[in-house]
Amino acid sequence: MQPRNMSMSGVVDLAAVKAAGEAKAKAEQARADAARQGGGVPGGAPGGAVPPSALVVDVDEAGFESDVLQLSNEVPVVLDFWAEWCEPCKQLSPLLERLTVEANGRLVLAKIDVDANQMLMQQFGIQGIPAVFAVVAGQVLPLFQGVAPEQQIRETLAQLVQVAEERFGLLGLQVDPDAEGAPAAAPAEMPAGPYDALLEAAVVALDAGDLGGAVQAYKNVLADDPANTEAKLGLAQAELLSRVQHLNPQTVRAEAAADPKDPAAQMAAADLDLAGGHVADAFARLVDTVRVTFGDDRDAVRVRLLELFEVIGTDDPRVSAARTALARVLF
User: Fold this and answer.
1) What is this structure's pTM?
2) How far does the chain reach from its first CA to its final CA, in angstroms?
3) Which residue is catalytic, options 25, 89, 137, 141?
4) Separation in Å, CA 176 to CA 58, 73, 90, 173
5) Are 301 and 116 in contact (CB under 8 A)?
6) How does strand 131-136 pair with strand 139-145?
7) Tens digit of each residue's pLDDT (9 = 90 or more) over 223-236
8) What is the rounded CA–CA span in Å between residue 220 and residue 329?
9) Which of 86, 147, 222, 300 is catalytic?
10) Cα-based angle 93, 135, 25 (whole degrees, multiple of 5)
11) 89 catalytic, yes or no?
């Protein structure tokens, strides 16, 4: 799916942006660290909740890689290029801020003052402001330039969220409205939750080799609590084991080698790769298969790749690298 009003052409060379900013990043490391400690872009512990104010942040050249590129593997980052003297910017920026907060963690807005960040302006090829881009899984998408009607901007951001979720499995950040301005507190000792028995039953089923029982137990938890991290990870692992338990490795690998465009053969081989601990090989195989397939076949392979991301855990650097590779193939 390619969103309406969202151009996939003109992708910015992020490698150049990264390289050009490294020298300045080192020189300003102390200042950037201090600024982030005072409230920068959320990108800390995976799964940690952030206050609504952390969804709209100022970003400079020194912090672009860590505050935008890395964060874009968790949540789509919208870039708002603006300047104090720009009257249209004063109309657009508050609207983008409001829509970002309304998105409740499914977007982050990074505001970039072009007067203070000339290098970024040049790297993005910006001829006029306001200019709005998005970064998804390390890849830049130009969205629009100038002030657009609110409904059109809403639709564009909704399409961006949909692309991030459906193609890359980016579900965004958890937002805690009660955390606004409050210091982080140590987690309190919690009593046993309502899912402990079901999760324990799933583990017991896995240990006994009852993969079907484990899958069902994890699904029971997720039916009531779709965000349960332990259940999502357990289900992904149990389903992987279910798929590979009756496979003949020699046959699967021979079929995959014989036809690199056969999605079923490549997915089966990737499952074996991952089950055998060859994580990077599994991801690379499916990214390559996405590159050479089309339509429903391509979508099936992409979905399987997202499922394998869940097996490893979305905060794993190998998953981040694979998301970036997938973005390059899709866009």
Assistant:
1) 0.58
2) 11
3) 89
4) 20, 20, 28, 10
5) no
6) antiparallel
7) 888 778 888 888 88
8) 35
9) 86
10) 90
11) yes
